[in-house]
Write a structure and sequence with these properties.
The chain is of the alpha/beta class. The chain folds into 3 domains: 45 residues, no CATH class; 39 residues; 160 residues, 3-Layer(aba) Sandwich (Collagenase (Catalytic Domain)). It has 7 helices and 7 strands. Strands 4-3-5-7-6 form a 5-stranded mixed β-sheet. The longest helix is centred in the N-terminal third of the chain and has 32 residues. The protein starts with a helix and ends in a 6-residue tail after the last helix.
Length: 312
């Protein structure tokens, strides 16, 4: 009986060992992605077995990724368009070429002209006092702002108001620039036309003699010139002066056609004020020694160009 019980126990132990060995083989056969080391039932270790290799990515990304990328691309496109638009607007604002002025009008930015531009035919001789650096575009007054002026009537002829008004009207119609009369003044500072803080004062029109203004010495009947502000590329006339020789105007009093000649002198000097220089053609009013009393074809061509400069 004893031997029979021992045999049963040995048979049972062999069965348990066989079961453990089969269980161990099954565990070793398992595929796992765990990187840790497992302890076997027999006290040994089981080397981890990596799972199958991941599948290669599909040729088309998941819908969520595609939507995200499209959204990002659209944001980048919108940002690029925005930056481009800002550059265009900046160029239009800071570029003073006639084409850029037209762009500003299309975009609805910047000021508008006060008066209509004048069409010039380009005939005749004309010259400009100054041009913008590196271009053939003349420096001029902003057609979006009036040219403010005041008159000091000391030493002027009795009909000075009519003379000045008619001369200003002539230049305004030839340029499309508008003038704003600020009335009479006792100011006689023909040199410094910038006030406190560099603010431009109105253009000063007045009469003087060579003792007060040395440039009127000799046969000079008048002096005039604009004063600009800017850096060469972006430069605009903002003030100036017109000085008329009171002795020359008095000498013309007895002559036939006095008013016509006096007015012609003022128109000539206002031509300088808006930016015209002398020419060598005696048929033009901007000839240095004025012989004619009306604007010539070259005078009108140059004045039309000066009136069509971009708004400041």
């Amino acid at each position: 009986m004893i031997s029979g019980v021992g045999g049963f126990r040995r048979s049972r132990r062999r069965a348990e060992e066989q079961w453990q060995r089969e269980l161990l083989r099954e565990i070793r056969a398992l595929e796992t992605t765990d990187d840790s080391v497992d302890v076997g039932l027999d006290g040994g270790t089981v080397t981890p077995i990596r799972g199958p290799l991941p599948k290669p990515p599909r040729s088309r990304p998941p819908r969520r990724e595609r939507v995200g990328r499209v959204s990002t691309d659209r944001r980048r496109t919108f940002a690029t368009v925005g930056v481009t638009a800002c550059v265009v607007v900046a160029l239009a604002l800071f570029n003073l070429s006639p084409g850029a002025a037209q762009v500003r009008q299309w975009l609805g930015i910047g000021a508008d002209r006060l008066g209509a531009a004048v069409d010039g035919d380009g005939r005749g001789d004309y010259a400009f006092l100054a041009t913008r650096r590196g271009t053939d575009q003349p420096i001029g007054w902003s057609p979006c702002d009036p040219i403010e002026y005041v008159v000091n009537p000391d030493g002027a002829p009795d009909d000075w108001e009519d003379l000045v008004d008619e001369a200003v009207t002539t230049i305004s119609e030839a340029t499309g620039l508008l003038f704003d009369y600020g009335g009479e003044t006792d100011d006689r500072d023909f040199e410094g036309r910038f006030g406190i803080g560099g603010r431009p004062e109105p253009v000063l029109v007045g009469w003087a003699d060579e003792d007060e203004v040395s440039g009127l010495a000799g046969d000079v009947a008048g002096l005039a010139g604009p004063m600009s502000r800017g850096n060469g590329l972006i430069e605009t006339y903002v003030t100036g002066r017109v000085v008329l020789d009171q002795d020359a105007f008095e000498d013309l009093e007895p002559a036939i056609g006095t008013e016509r000649k006096q007015r012609a002198i003022i128109v000539h000097e206002l031509g300088h004020l808006v930016g015209l220089d002398h020419v060598d053609d005696p048929d033009e009013l901007m000839y240095a020694e004025t012989g004619v009393t009306e604007l010539g074809p070259g005078d009108r061509s140059g004045l039309a160009i000066l009136g069509d400069t971009p708004c400041a």
